[in-house]
ROK family protein (Cryptosporangium phraense), 406 residues
Amino acid sequence: MLSPGSDVQLRKSRASGVSSASVREHNALSVIAILREHGPASRADLVRRSGLTRPTVDAIVESLLADAVVAHTGNQTVPPGAKGRPGQLLGFNAGRNTAVVCRSRRDRLEIRLTDALGYTLAEVAAPIDHTPEAFFREAAEHISHLVSTVPGAGPVAAASVLIPGLINRRTGASISHPPWGWADVPVQAALSKHLQIPVTVLNHASAAVVGEVAHGAGYGHEDVLMVLLDFGVGVGVLTGGALLRGADGAVGELGHSRVERPGRLCVCGRSGCLETVASGRFIQEEAVRIGGESSAGRTLAELSALSDRRVDLMLAGAADRLGLAVSGLVNVLNPSIVILGGTEFAAGAERFFDSFRRSVQENSLPANAANLEFALAGKDSEWSGATHAALEHMPARLRPRQSFGI
Ligand SMILES: [Zn+2]
């Protein structure tokens, strides 16, 4: 929001040669931000909150009404006995454009249609073929069908897709995802061609860190290490408020760091990876080995609730190994918070989280661990982050104010 001294800032901007068009747009974005964050307001409210003059606000509002970015939402209620006519209320028109958010799971594709505030308008989940050509065709068909189920929804302006495995963030290609047989699959290019809109491709851990910082435990932090614990182990990193990309964008594959030699065979084709001793896959396999088939498919919280000493020991060992690996990243990246979880498998796993936190604290350098915060995430981090990623590519006036450079 602009401070009451905005007009002073505006004059300074003119003096420093910033174009009047960019000042106008800056002021328009400030008015939009007020409506996004505080809900409907009258023109008088906008003048008061923005610090802009009434003629400036009037001009901005007319432009935003013409662009359908704001709309009239009704009249202010006037207290009994008050004089004067009620002011017309203006609201952010979140339905002007929509976004599509896709999350690929092991055997299915989940798709949400959201408005420009990220609220879900409709969703669908469908089995999907992992052959690249079939995947793109079927995804486009599911998206078209979903959009058609919401009559009156604004045109889809942007999409994001969560894909497991290594992603090239520069090209939006899947570098490698062995379980699907994917190698150098041009996800972004193919889906952009099918959908005719900007498509952002992210892995689950990168989306999770964005989600936690935008709306969750990482809110207000700029240096965040998110450990996404699911079947595998991924890491999402925010440094200085921006998503860490790396040279090719292939950031975050902590699960395939070798911690044992020779070690067990890993899904990546190598052996001794962290995932072979501290992932959801390892934990669930060990739980079945200890407790039989009745333990299959349980979450971390459910396994803890069994109060089986052998299961507890196995979980404590996995949490310690995961904490040890993460402590190395803490020493390198110096985050202000480490967030664990972000998946249905890890949600509510308080005891596992306590063991993990202890291990990170004990194994990190004291200087890095001294002020380090920890949080256990809920299960929706990656959805929230993927939605934010799509919204960052909406038309400029519809984008969220906070950008992670996705
Ligand atoms: Zn591996």
